């Protein structure tokens, strides 16, 4: 690999990890009061109304994270021999971006607009359910199916070995478990698996950059 291209990929992965880590911290900090976790819809409406700017900017960080995940999977795919399954894997990840971004736009802009127009809490709850399934079930499910397929291909082609391979497979499977719990409506379990999957995934990205990426 050309040194310049290698450096672009290497540092891109680090930027992606920083963005995703920031998004996770925002979700567990400034965004938490507006998420349907340990509060009522009235409390969420009040929080979003009082924190509109940080709420929307935080969701913008998640939008960047979605694009960043695709970029990482493209870098992973570039290490593989081209074949049909490789194309399917990257296509699945790419398909996950659309529902994920739609959900984040709903959270970032549509829900605050509904709140500002005082159209009622029922509309907010319906939008929350739609957005949660778009991002947590459909988008996340496609990301992790595609990532898992690319990782299995990397193992079969000898790109990933031993504990690095196992780490990647476990991270993607835990991500799929997140989608399962979102589909089941278990928000608390989904939150737990989000935290675990994000920690493992971002750490694995760094490991990939330092241990696997070919120079």
Automatic annotation (TrEMBL):
Please indicate which superkingdom the organism of origin belongs to.
Bacteria
Q: Which residues form a coiled coil?
A: none
Q: What are the UniProt keywords, alphabetically?
A: Membrane, Plasmid, Transmembrane, Transmembrane helix
Tell me where the transmembrane regions lie: 7-28, 59-77, 84-110, 130-155, 162-183, 189-209
UniProt name for this protein: DUF4386 family protein
